[in-house]
Amino acid sequence: MPGFFTSIFQWISGLFFSKQAEIAVVGLQASGKTSFVNVITSGQWSEDVVPTVAFNFRKIRKGNVTMKIWDVAGQPKFRSMWERYCNGVDAIVFVVDSVDHDKFNTARFELHQLLGQPTLVGVPLLVLGNKNDLDGHVPVKELIRNLQLDKISDRPVSCYSCSMKSQHNLDIVLQWLAGRSH
Ligand SMILES: Nc1nc2c(ncn2[C@@H]2O[C@H](COP(=O)(O)OP(=O)(O)O)[C@@H](O)[C@H]2O)c(=O)[nH]1
Ligand SMILES: [Mg+2]
């Protein structure tokens, strides 16, 4: 019987306290977007990820927060689609491979191009410097400088160094995302 009352209570509290957040995950190809979605969805890291064609959609529940996640492909031909998926979301997550120094310029260009879209003004931005389990990854400070995040003034911006593989900092990232729910 106590189990019954507990589940009724959970159901009722869910009605009053359940919240939603819709997020779009973008960034260059192979930065770790799909790995991020897989890890936060299942808590499992897997080395084998199939490159994303166009997009994946996932819906997950973390505590009383339901998250709808658009995982959008990062190859050049798909980048013009990013705006469409980011339009109307509660947060944009921009994933960067923090070891791949040669691609920082392209990542910066694509990020600022995206944020320049009039439809996306004010949408909060979370930048993830991924793969910090690998030697040669840049620390957050350098990532902020390389991506010129200090130039963004029309929205809340956060930046974390993290690793999908070791799950480093993912607790903070999830907290940040939950904070965007309503
Ligand atoms: N070492 C390491 N490799 C990662 C990490 N995250 C993703 N990868 C690898 O990077 C490659 C691209 O990952 P994927 O999630 O497909 O990137 P996407 O193209 O942005 O969706 C895969 O081989 C992943 O196993 C990480 O935190 N550490
Ligand atoms: Mg992918």
Descriptive notes:
The chain has helices spanning 2-17, 33-42, 82-86, 104-115, 140-146, 170-178; strands at residues 19-26, 55-62, 65-72, 91-97, 125-130, 157-161. The protein starts with a helix and ends with a helix. The protein has a single domain (18-178), classed as P-loop containing nucleotide triphosphate hydrolases (Rossmann fold, 3-Layer(aba) Sandwich). Helix 4 links the parallel strand 4 (91-97) and strand 5 (125-130). The protein is 32% helix and 23% strand. It has a 6-stranded mixed beta sheet, with helices on both faces. The mean pLDDT is 91. The chain is an alpha/beta fold. The chain binds guanosine-5'-diphosphate and magnesium ion. Guanosine-5'-diphosphate is lined by residues 27, 29-35, 47, 49, 51-52, 74, 95, 130-131, 133-134, 163-165.
Mean pLDDT: 91
Which homologous superfamily in CATH is the superfamily? P-loop containing nucleotide triphosphate hydrolases
Total separate domains: 1
Shape: globular
| Helical content (DSSP H or I, runs of 4+) | 25-40%
Total DSSP E strands: 6
The CATH C-level class name: Alpha Beta
Structural class category: alpha/beta
Q: Strand percentage, roughly? A: 15-25%
Q: Uncertain regions: pLDDT < 50 for 5+ in a row?
A: none
Count of helical stretches: 6
Distance between the termini: 33 Å
Biggest sheet character = 6 strands, mixed
CATH architecture: 3-Layer(aba) Sandwich
How are the strands ordered across the major sheet? 2-3-1-4-5-6
Q: What small molecules accompany the polymer chains?
A: guanosine-5'-diphosphate, magnesium ion
The whole-angstrom Rg is 17 Å
CATH topology: Rossmann fold
Element pattern in H and E: HEHEEHEHEHEH
GO molecular function: GTP binding; GTPase activity; metal ion binding
Organism: Agrocybe chaxingu
GO cellular component, one term: lytic vacuole membrane
GO biological process, one term: protein transport
